[in-house]
Design brief:
Shape: elongated
Number of strands: 6
Number of helices: 3
Structural class: alpha+beta
Helix content: 25-40%
């Protein structure tokens, strides 16, 4: 029995030495160079969420949906992930009666580093967009 343990220990030790002397094969993985087009933190009625978009079309569809939610009476806000909002208290307000103008203005302000909040007034059919940086 003692002889089997010594043989096994010697075999295991030599196996480790032999394995450590082997040339390591480096396998290079292709990491996709595609980064997310834009990463966004957003809130609907105070519930914070996060989403990433891979292209301009999906980002535009998201903006369109956020403005539509504002029309339905929800309080929406959104901004690019990684920005500190409200530190400098720079605020820009934009009022319009056009869904497309509200969408375009919001797009521009988010890309400039602002967090945009959109409210819709049903009585006057106007969007009030407030951007805070």
């Amino acid at each position: 029995m003692k002889r089997k343990i010594i043989t096994f220990a010697l075999f295991a030790g030599l196996s480790l030495v032999a394995a450590s002397c082997q040339k390591e094969n480096v396998v290079e993985q292709n990491i996709s160079a595609e980064m997310a087009y834009i990463n966004v933190n957003y809130s609907i009625d105070g519930v914070e969420m996060h989403v990433s978009f891979d292209d301009e079309a999906s980002w535009r569809a998201f903006l369109y949906r956020m403005i539509a939610l504002a029309e339905e009476g929800h309080r929406v806000s959104f901004g690019e992930n990684g920005h500190e909002y409200g530190v400098t208290k720079e605020t820009v307000t934009f009022v319009t009666g056009s869904h497309s103008e509200a969408t375009e203005w919001s797009n521009t302000m988010v890309k400039k580093g602002y967090r945009v909040t959109v409210d819709f007034d049903e009585k006057t059919n106007t969007y009030t967009c407030v951007a805070i940086k």
